[in-house]
Design a protein that fits this description.
With 351 residues, the chain is of the alpha+beta class. The chain has helices spanning 2-23, 36-103, 109-114, 119-199, 340-345, and strands spanning 228-229, 247-250, 256-258, 263-269, 276-281, 287-296, 303-304, 309-313, 324-329, 337-338. Helix 2 (36-103) runs antiparallel to helix 4. The chain is rod-shaped and about 125 Å long.
Length: 351
């Protein structure tokens, strides 16, 4: 009887233990957007921001350098005036010496005073000696002051040129350092994106801090903030089986890509000719596509606002170089595109 009761108690305990063991995960689950891609994507964005700040500093420094250069050139011009003035003073000293020599018949003024044959001659000699001595002393004093000013001004001018050179060197080093770091981060970001596309699996949205910017004013914006237009809608070429279906924006890898208007994410894909791509649905039944991305910042079904970052540009899929491929469509699928430049222009966005 006791054995039967103990068995009735043990069986539920064993069943609970088995249930707990079965419920325990075999591997740790990683939430989308919490992996190393998040840190790298954010690092690229941070470096872009630092590059923007460094560019502003560089431009401000360049203007400052231009002002310093103009000031140094003005100082050089003043130095030339001073040098000419000193040369003139040297000529004055020479004229005084020659005049004394001529007026004294080749004898020193003091000798004429000693040889004077009357008090009047003595007085005239003393007066002439005093005037000549005063003129010489004044000329010498002027010359010395001018030479001292010239030396000080030359030293200041040299300091200005050296400060300018140091400033230019610092700016060049700052810019080169950020460019090197940014290029390294871009390369790693693209490498991870290529791996994701090869696997055909998106790795989850990378949540990036949205900056406060006037670029998002209005209901519609351009998909990237700074760019050069490259392949246009309808253009031909060996890269496409038919005509080009969108507008390409030549931008570096990692450039933040923005939703052109409010909408909902209806497609997120990481395989095929477009590589990493996002498709948004907008009011009025239109869709926009953003392709060849290096990272994604939104998930399918998510609602986005105008100017919101939805990814970072790259060169995944069938791409010959870093750029954003942008399409405006009447359906979510490829083959229904319209001219995106005209489509944006009708909404107040001029490219």
């Amino acid at each position: 009887m006791r054995s039967y009761r103990r068995l009735r108690l043990i069986v539920p305990v064993l069943l609970c233990a088995l249930a707990v063991l079965a419920a325990r995960p075999t591997t740790a689950h990683k939430e989308p957007g919490t992996g190393p891609e998040t840190g790298l994507s954010a690092e690229v964005v941070r470096l872009y921001e630092e590059a923007a700040v460094a560019t502003q500093q560089y431009e401000a420094g360049r203007k400052e350098a231009d002002a310093q250069r103009a000031e140094a050139q003005r100082a050089e011009a003043l130095l030339d005036v001073q040098r000419r003035h000193i040369a003139s003073l040297h000529e004055d000293l020479g004229r005084i010496a020659r005049a004394q020599y001529r007026s004294s018949g080749g004898l020193p003024v003091a000798a004429h005073i000693i040889l004077a044959d009357s008090p009047e001659s003595l007085m005239r000699g003393q007066h002439a000696f005093s005037q000549a001595d005063l003129a010489v002393n004044n000329a010498i004093s002027k010359n010395r002051r001018a030479e001292a000013r010239l030396a000080a001004d030359e030293a200041r001018a040299a300091d200005r040129w050296q400060a300018l050179e140091r400033r230019n060197t610092q700016l060049a080093a700052l810019k080169a350092d950020i460019e090197q770091k940014l290029e390294t981060a871009r390369s790693e970001l693209q490498g991870r994106a290529d791996a994701a596309v090869a696997e055909g699996a998106c790795r989850g949205a990378v949540r990036l801090d949205q900056p406060v910017t006037g670029f998002t004013d209005g209901d519609w914006v351009a998909p990237v903030e700074t760019y050069e237009l490259s392949a246009s809608y309808g253009s031909g070429g060996a890269r496409w089986s038919n005509r080009h279906t969108g507008q390409d924006f030549a931008v570096p890898i990692g450039t933040p890509v923005r939703a052109v208007g409010a909408g909902r994410v209806v497609k997120v894909s990481c395989g095929g000719p477009f590589g990493m791509e996002v498709v948004l649905k907008h009011a009025g039944g239109y869709y926009t596509q953003y392709a060849h991305l290096a990272s994604l910042a939104v998930d399918q079904g998510e609602h986005v606002s105008p100017g919101q970052w939805i990814g970072q540009s790259g060169t995944t899929g069938n791409s010959t170089g870093p750029h954003l491929h942008f399409e405006a469509r009447i359906t979510a699928e490829s083959g229904s595109s319209v001219d995106p430049v005209s489509w944006l222009a009708a909404r107040g966005v001029s490219l």
